[in-house]
Amino acid sequence: MSLTLHYHPLSSFCHKVLIGLYELGLAFDKQLVDLGNPSERAAFAALWPMAKFPVLHDHAAQRVVPESTIILEYLDQRSSGTPRLIASDPTRALECRLRDRLYDLHIHLPMQKIVGDIRRPDGQHDPLGVAQARAQIQAAYAIADAQLRDTTWAAGDAFSMADCAAAPALFYANKVVPFAAHPHITAYFARLSARPSYARVLEEAQPYMAMFPA
């Protein structure tokens, strides 16, 4: 197999890439990495010194590709025909990338800040940082809800990279900052949850969900 995804089933950014792989129908191997295992961590860091999930190894091209958005861009370029994760039209492609950034930077990352704070020892919490993260997520929810008022998917009528980003961001963020007050996000997430690619990702992650601290 040419492609190997180094990942963990609970990792939200790995979910993003898995959705894209399933949407594109690309064959790949999975390499589950236990970062608590010193030898596995060392092998993973040898591929990508930041040792952050996910990392794609393209053996045929002898290339290591880190970072979820870059991996999806790379996979989309490899894909022949349809479906595509990024529109060929430059204007639509730019909008897709912008919305991918909205979900990653303004929902996904602050969600991780909140979850990370839950895991901190007593006396080492950051209440101001958590409050700022919650406010950032709420601001992003308002933007996303308005964007979703007249569209089926995050960047228009076609499923795209932006939806791959939105699904795990919304799934985990909803556990710490519920989006129930935003009707368009709520309806959109129901559509995402019914999408076969994302339903498969959630099913595969289910045995690990008890590890999520929120």
Describe this structure in words.
By secondary structure, the chain is α+β, with helices and mostly antiparallel strands. It folds into two domains: 3-78, Glutaredoxin; 90-195, Glutathione S-transferase Yfyf (Class Pi), Chain A, domain 2. The chain has eight helices and four strands. Strand 3 and strand 4 (63-66) form a beta hairpin. The longest helix is centred in the middle third of the chain and has 29 residues, at 90-118. It is globular.
Helix-strand sequence = EHEHEEHHHHHH
The gross shape turns out to be globular
- CATH architecture heading of the largest domain: Up-down Bundle
Rg on CA atoms, Å: 17 Å
Structural class: alpha+beta
Tell me about the largest β-sheet.
4 strands, mixed
CATH topology of the largest domain: Glutathione S-transferase Yfyf (Class Pi), Chain A, domain 2
